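Ligand: guanosine-5'-diphosphate. Inputs:
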Amino acid sequence: MKPVVAIVGRPNVGKSTLFNRITRSRDALVDDFPGVTRDRHYADTMWNEKEFTLIDTGGFLLSDDDVFATEIRQHVEIAVDEADVVVLVLDGRSGLSPFDTDLADILRRSEKKVFYLINKVENNSQRHAMPEFYSLGVDKFYSVSAEHGIGISDFMDDLANAL
Ligand code: GDP
Ligand code: MG
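Predicted complex:
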């Protein structure tokens, strides 16, 4: 069994963009299993010769706020159960949301290895907007732009080392 890496985070933070960035560049074999894993995407991929299965826990497109929060938690809990390593994606443009704090709490309790990414960081003013994320009590953040490929290889080197 290859190690499993799950990408989690609230909607629109860039999970799918990150998933595509990592897998597309490696010509990954993307498998969707209809039904059981309705709104997740799996790909077997590799980085620095480490093979792993990447999961995109996307597809939270519900409008009702309560269902929405519950669904996110459920997805994250399932993903975390399956995963060896979890990547929590945060949004450097919209900033910290209560959902992020919720998810960070769930992940902390899981005692899995977690990487914290602040996505959509494309210039220095966004870099300076990051201190609010330190209230999550996390030691290390990776600031990245999944869309533009900034910071991804440094993050992926560390991720591959942890597998
Ligand atoms: P998901 O809901 O977490 O899967 O988020 P998506 O990957 O679908 O991205 C949500 C939106 O954010 C899309 O409009 C993306 O183009 C945009 N986005 C994703 N990554 C970045 C990034 O690194 N920088 C910027 N500026 N936008 C991004
Ligand atoms: Mg998505």
